[in-house]
Design brief:
Layout: E1 3-9, E2 13-20, E3 26-33, E4 39-40, H1 42-52, E5 62-67, E6 73-75, E7 85-86, H2 94-104, H3 107-114, H4 123-133, H5 135-140, E8 143-145, H6 147-156, E9 163-165, H7 166-169, E10 175-176, E11 181-182, H8 184-190, E12 200-202, E13 207-210, E14 216-218, E15 221-222, H9 223-231, E16 237-242, E17 246-250, E18 264-267, E19 273-279, H10 283-293, H11 297-306, E20 315-317, E21 334-336, H12 345-368, E22 376-380, H13 387-397, E23 401-404, H14 409-423, E24 435-439, H15 443-464
Parallel strand pairs: 1-5, 5-14, 5-15, 9-12, 16-22, 22-23
Antiparallel strand pairs: 1-2, 2-3, 4-7, 6-8, 10-11, 13-14, 16-17, 17-19, 18-19, 20-21, 23-24
Helix pairs in contact: 1-6, 2-4, 4-8, 9-14, 10-12, 11-12, 12-13, 13-15
């Protein structure tokens, strides 16, 4: 049996799956935690990968790494990090993003150049913040990598040339999915004239090298492109992912360039494209609400199920860590409609579920406005395991929801990419995706969902326009 490994180096942990290359059957699993925070030592990711993979990688034929996108890993001339890596959810670069948009001539110029308009999460914005606030460290920087680039490089050995792939490069703000080339002029603009070395961009099935034990290393990719590959997205499929952050994305055959900045014009891991809308707050809304109420997540679900749809007018705007869509990096979460009738734990719990899902429904609307017509909506991520999340999602979206069998789809996609690179075929191997549930929605439930969304929208627009 040919065995392949996929790594998901996420914000919170490193997860590894080992699969049968022919069928995608998961044979082994392992995980190790990452440190908390929005700025962490890149070495911590490598330590977690080594801890999770102890003994596993000696028995695989190929491996690929998928990781959180848009982090900034600056290295000196010796390949050592010059500071802790800034993660995608570090919002200190929000003003820097605004400056860059203005300096290039506005959102349309950025969308035409790289398919996306920079916000705080983009690497290009983090580089500007770095140049302005830590110029002595920026001067020492000779190379810029992304989290998956860094781990792929460490797997290959420090004397290897760093590489990346289309999917991850497309989140930097200085690589164009439409042309397939870096925009070093934008890199220099962001980094105040500095032009550090960038990793070579590999083709989707191109091998990056081999590990010390001889396993082939595939190109790897960003986490959303990895999940899309793990799910085997087909035309008409739209994914709503409820992890730490929330994302809505679909596979497309042509690149996008949204000047509003809401849609990131990413590439995927197959040679196509992955228009994506991101929210900073998804599953964290539920865990935070549970903490506030002093209950665990199952009890939070029980409380929320006891309250009526719409929570009698109690609305939570779930911008707990600022927000990316809408672009409100300095916003905070808030509750509206408090009165004696709504000041109950169940109402607050219900408002948390509905606020999280209304925000994600708004993200889906952005995709639909570009011409994407959902045939099937796939709900994934840790929060998608909740029966109540599934039911409220179908209600608020007014559309049936498909829930794939719970799996580490980012890691599974990386493993599928490893199998593809090992086989050298024109297309990735066909691995089946099992469905755990199909959630339908009645006309009455859809009407109720529209009313919930209308109340949410009025509250949002009253505060933020």
């Amino acid at each position: 049996m040919t065995r392949v490994a996929g790594v998901d180096s996420s914000t919170q942990s490193c997860k590894i799956v080992v699969c049968d290359a022919a069928t995608g059957t998961v044979l082994e699993r392992a995980t190790a935690p990452h440190p908390d925070g929005t700025a962490v030592p890149a070495e911590a990711w490598w330590d977690a990968l080594r801890a999770a993979s102890d003994g596993l990688l000696d028995r695989v034929d190929a491996i690929a790494v998928a990781a959180q996108q848009q982090g900034m890993v600056p290295l000196d001339a010796d390949g050592a990090p010059v500071r802790d890596a800034l993660l995608w959810n570090d919002t200190r670069s929000a003003a820097a993003a605004d400056d860059l948009v203005r300096e290039l001539g506005g959102p349309r110029r950025w969308a035409d150049a790289v398919g996306s308009v920079p916000v705080a999460s983009f690497t290009v914005a983090k580089l500007r913040w770095f140049a302005d606030h830590e110029p002595h460290l920026a001067d020492r920087t000779r190379r810029i990598l992304l989290p998956h680039d860094y781990l792929t490089w460490r797997l290959r050995g420090l004397d290897a040339e760093p590489v990346t792939d289309r999917g991850d490069a497309s989140g930097t703000g200085y690589w164009s999915p439409a042309t397939g080339h870096y925009r070093e002029d934008l890199l220099a603009l962001a980094f105040r004239g500095r032009t550090p070395l960038l990793p070579r961009v590999l083709e989707p099935a191109e091998a990056a090298g081999r590990t010390a034990t001889g396993a082939l290393i595939a190109a790897g990719t960003g986490d959303n492109a990895g999940a899309a590959l793990g799910l085997g997205l087909e035309p008409g499929d739209v994914v709503l992912s409820l992890g730490t952050s929330g994302t809505a994305y679909a596979r497309a055959e042509t690149p996008s360039a949204d000047s509003s900045g809401a849609i990131a014009g990413f590439a995927d891991a197959t040679g196509a494209f992955l228009p994506l809308v991101c929210t900073l707050n998804a599953a964290r809304v539920l865990t935070s609400a549970a903490q506030l109420l002093g209950v665990d997540l199952p009890d939070l679900e029980t409380l929320a199920a006891q309250a009526p749809p719409g929570a009698d007018g109690l609305v939570m705007l779930p911008y707990l860590t600022g927000e990316r869509t809408p672009n409100l990096p300095h916003a905070a979460g808030s509750l509206h409609g408090l009165c004696p009738r709504t000041m109950h734990p169940g109402h607050l719990a219900r408002a948390a579920y509905e606020g999280m899902l209304c925000n994600l429904a708004d993200a889906l609307d952005r995709l639909v406005a570009t011409g994407i017509s959902p045939r099937r909506i796939l709900l994934i991520g840790g929060a998608a395991r909740s029966p109540l999340v599934r039911a409220i999602a179908a209600q608020i979206l007014g559309h049936p929801v498909t829930v794939p069998e719970p799996e580490e789809y980012v890691a599974l996609g990386a493993a599928r990419q490893a199998a593809w690179a090992l086989a050298g075929t024109a297309a990735p191997p066909r691995w089946p995706t099992r469905t755990a549930a199909e959630i339908s929605v009645s006309p009455d439930a859809a009407d109720s969902g529209r009313a919930v969304r209308a109340t949410y929208a009025r509250t949002r627009d009253t505060l933020y326009g």
